[in-house]
Write a structure and sequence with these properties.
With about 100 residues, the chain is mainly alpha-helical. The longest helix has 12 residues. The termini are far apart.
Length: about 100
Amino acid sequence: SGVLGHVVSEEGNVRLVRAKVELGEADAAVVYRTDVTPYSRVRIVPIPAVLNVRADYHIGMIERSAHPELAGRWIAYVQSEEGQGILAQHGFVTE
């Protein structure tokens, strides 16, 4: 019963889940904010912090990188003010 008693479908990926909501085939879906931010047809309803799940993303370089200088520059860019701003524009929470 409860929420699980009203599930209309279980899709294999988030794009299909979002499409169900956009097409009116589902009333709501639980997805990461970053999966809907660029789409204005979907209204985001925040989940209270005490109930929410936080996903942490990490960046790093493999030990035997074929291009360690480029990898290092990429990491520096992602961590820069500009890189963090781009992530924030796409719904990622940066710290």
